[in-house]
Design brief:
- The protein is of the alpha+beta class and about 260 residues long.
- The chain folds into 2 domains: about 5-85, Winged helix-like DNA-binding domain superfamily/Winged helix DNA-binding domain (Arc Repressor Mutant, subunit A), CATH 1.10.10.10; about 115-255, Endonuclease Chain A (Endonuclease, Chain A, 2-Layer Sandwich).
- The protein contains 10 helices and 9 strands.
- It has helices at about 10-15, 20-35, 40-45, 50-60, 80-115, 130-140, 155-160, 160-175, 185-195, 240-255, and strands at about 65, 75-80, 120-125, 145-150, 180-185, 200-205, 215-220, 220-225, 230-235.
- The protein has a 7-stranded mixed beta sheet with strand order 3-9-8-7-4-5-6, sandwiched between helices.
- A hairpin with a 2-residue loop joins β7 (about 215-220) and β8.
- α1 crosses α2 and α2 (about 20-35) packs across α4 (about 50-60).
- It is elongated.
- The N and C termini lie far apart (about 70 Å).
- The mean pLDDT is about 80.
Length: about 260
C-alpha cells in the first residue's frame, strides 16, 4: 500500500505503537472505508478474512478497533478515530518516560555490577561535536559518586560551550555527584574554582612545561580521552586500563598545588 504524505505521520505513529506494516495498512484502509464488511477490508488488503481477524487482534490491544452494534454476522468493522492513535501514543511515551527515568536512577548501581573481567576490551572513537556532547551527558548518568577530570578544562569548555557545561553541572548536582578537576591553568579554570564549593567540585591546577589541549575523564568503569581539535572522543572500557588511569590521576592529584 502506498504511504503518501497525507498519511505519513499516521503510519509513523502506528509503527511507534508496535504495529506491523500490514496492521498499519489495515487501520488506514478502514479509516478510508469507514464501517465495512470484513470481506471488503480483506479485498483491499489482498489477504484472506481469517488473516484480517489476526490483524484485528493486534489493533484491539491498542484499543483501535470497534464493530457496529448489529448482529454478529451482519455487523461491520471499523477503527477508532485518529485521536485514539494519538492518545495511545502519548500513553506509551508516558510509560516509556517513567521507565527511562527509573533506569537513569538505577544505572550507576547497575554499572557497578558490571565486571568486564577477562572480557574483550571495548574501544570506541566518536567523531564530531554531537557525539562529543552525547557521551559527555551520558557520563553523569552512569556515575553516582565521583568523576575525575584531568587536562585542559579551558579548551574543553570552549569547545562544548558554557551552556552545555552548566547544564551538565546542574544534572551532576541533582544526582549529588562530586568531581575532582585537575586542570591546566586558564581563565576558565579560575572561573570554575571560584564556584567549587557550591558546585560539589574541587579544582587543582596541573603545572606543565608545555600546556596541551586534550584531557581525559574517569567515571563508572570508563575512560574518555577528549580531543577538541579533531574533534573526537575515545572511550575505553577496560578494567585494567581504567584502574591504571585512576592510580595515575591520584598520584598527580596529590602532588598538585591547590
Amino acid at each position: 500500500m502506498e504511504k503518501n504524505e497525507k498519511y505519513k505521520n499516521l503510519y509513523t505513529s502506528l509503527k511507534e505503537l508496535g504495529l506491523s506494516d500490514l496492521e498499519a495498512d489495515l487501520y488506514v484502509i478502514s479509516l478510508k472505508l469507514g464501517p465495512a464488511q470484513l470481506s471488503e477490508v480483506a479485498k483491499h488488503l489482498g489477504i484472506s478474512r481469517p488473516n484480517v481477524y489476526k490483524l484485528i487482534k493486534s489493533l484491539e490491544k491498542n484499543n483501535l478497533v470497534k464493530f457496529s452494534q448489529k448482529e454478529k454476522y451482519s455487523r461491520k468493522f471499523m477503527v477508532e478515530s485518529p485521536s485514539s492513535v494519538l492518545e495511545a501514543l502519548r500513553k506509551k511515551k508516558k510509560q516509556l518516560s517513567k521507565v527511562d527515568e527509573g533506569l537513569v536512577l538505577d544505572l550507576p548501581e547497575l554499572m557497578a555490577f558490571y565486571h568486564q573481567g577477562e572480557g574483550t576490551t571495548k574501544i570506541k572513537v566518536l567523531k564530531g561535536k554531537e557525539q562529543y556532547v552525547k557521551i559527555f551527558n551520558q557520563s553523569v548518568e552512569e556515575e553516582n559518586k565521583e568523576i575525575q577530570f584531568c587536562g585542559s578544562s579551558g579548551d574543553f569548555i570552549e569547545f562544548v560551550s558554557w551552556d552545555i557545561e552548566n547544564n551538565w553541572i546542574r544534572k551532576r548536582l541533582k544526582k549529588n555527584v562530586f568531581i575532582k578537576v585537575l586542570t591546566i591553568p586558564s581563565g576558565t579554570a579560575d572561573a570554575l574554582k571560584v564556584r567549587d564549593s557550591r558546585e560539589k567540585r574541587e579544582t587543582r591546577f596541573l603545572k606543565v612545561a608545555n600546556p596541551f589541549r586534550s584531557s581525559f575523564m574517569l567515571y563508572a568503569n570508563k575512560l574518555i580521552i577528549w580531543q577538541p581539535e579533531a574533534p573526537l572522543a575515545v572511550i575505553v572500557e577496560d578494567v585494567y586500563i581504567v584502574k591504571m588511569m585512576r592510580e595515575l590521576f591520584e598520584v598527580l592529584w596529590k602532588v598538585s598545588l591547590e
